[in-house]
Amino acid sequence: MPMKNLPDLQSLKALVQGKNHSHPTLVLIRSNGCPPCQAIYPKINELADTEDFKSFEFYEFNVDPYLDDPQLDADMTRFAQDLGLQFLPSQILLAPEKEPKIIATSQLDVIEDELGSLRGDQQVSNQKS
After folding, report:
1. In angstroms, rounded to a whole number, what is the distance separating the alpha carbons of residues 60 and 111?
2. pTM of the predicted protein model
3. What's the CA gap between 77 and 86, in Å, rounded?
4. Pairing relation of β-strands 25-30 and 4-5?
5. Which domain of life is it from (predicted)?
6. How far is CA 29 from its chain centroid?
7. Rounded to an integer, what distance in angstroms lies between the CA atom of residue 35 and that of residue 87?
8. What is the 3-state composition of the chain as percent helix, strand, coil, each rounded to the nearest 5?
């Protein structure tokens, strides 16, 4: 299943701050003006469709609408600081009964390894469907 779009900061906050995650989840934080973000976005979207990660939920959140409005930018900045987001692209990893984990990478193998760790794998298969 392709990534779902989180349309606003409230949706992102609700997802991240919710404690009842029934599935391991990845949230990609990105910007259209960020070349590494643009490079990793289709790769994660493709990963979301693989058999290896069919039990996961994948979301994406684009920060661009928050850059032009000072109040929205301040709200986004405050949320990012509270969560520990510093770089783009970043991924927020959510799992049942675990605190959110933040990684900031554009390397798909690192993301796959982190997703495998969320699932409890010793080693993630690199097979592509």
Report:
1. 14
2. 0.88
3. 10
4. unpaired
5. Bacteria
6. 6
7. 13
8. 40, 15, 40
